[in-house]
């Protein structure tokens, strides 16, 4: 089982619309792909920037290859939309992890 973790650093001025967009667009798009299950959106409690908040979105996939293909194709389109909507007020990076124990 693979866990795809994407961390977003979000400027506080756009936090609420960004969270709404994640819940209304990004997460449903990922779920509709049939690759991901159990999306979990969390606020990162360690503050790295006083003007921004970090959020981590974790989703489970059965296949690293499928998750990676989705990340490189569909997620790239979604992240381009993030840039069009908010520019550099949202930064992000993704990490693939193998789940060892549930």
What do these coordinates show?
By secondary structure, the protein is α+β, with helices and mostly antiparallel strands. The chain has a single domain, classed as Alpha-Beta Plaits (2-Layer Sandwich), CATH 3.30.70. The chain has helices at 15-32, 64-72, 74-86, and strands at 2-11, 36-43, 52-61, 90-98. β2 (36-43) and β3 form a beta hairpin. 17% of the residues are buried.
Question: What order do the helices and strands follow?
Answer: EHEEHHE
**What's the total helix number?**
3
Mean pLDDT: 96
> End-to-end span in angstroms?
10 Å
Number of domains: 1
Number of strands: 4
Into which percent range does the helicity of residues fall? 25-40%
* CATH architecture tag: 2-Layer Sandwich
Q: How are the strands of the largest sheet arranged?
A: 2-3-1-4
CATH fold field value: Alpha-Beta Plaits
**Shape, please?**
globular
Q: Which secondary-structure class do the elements indicate?
A: alpha+beta
Major sheet attributes: 4 strands, antiparallel
Low-confidence stretches: none
Could you tell me the radius of gyration in angstroms?
13 Å
Text of the CATH class: Alpha Beta
Strand content: 35-45%
What's a quick, concise take on this entry?
It is built from 3 helices and 4 strands; from the N terminus they run βαββααβ.
Q: What order do the helices and strands come in, and which of them pair?
A:
Blueprint: E1 2-11, H1 15-32, E2 36-43, E3 52-61, H2 64-72, H3 74-86, E4 90-98
Antiparallel strand pairs: 1-3, 1-4, 2-3
């Amino acid at each position: 089982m693979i866990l795809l973790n994407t961390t977003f650093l979000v400027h506080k001025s756009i936090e609420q619309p960004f969270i709404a967009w994640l819940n209304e667009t990004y997460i449903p798009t990922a779920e509709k792909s049939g690759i991901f299950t159990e999306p979990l959106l969390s606020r990162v409690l360690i503050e790295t920037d006083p003007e921004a908040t970090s959020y981590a979105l974790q989703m489970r996939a059965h296949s690293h290859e499928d998750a990676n293909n989705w990340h490189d194709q569909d997620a790239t389109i979604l992240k381009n939309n993030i840039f069009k909507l908010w520019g550099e007020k949202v930064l992000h990076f993704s990490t693939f992890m193998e789940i060892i124990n549930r």
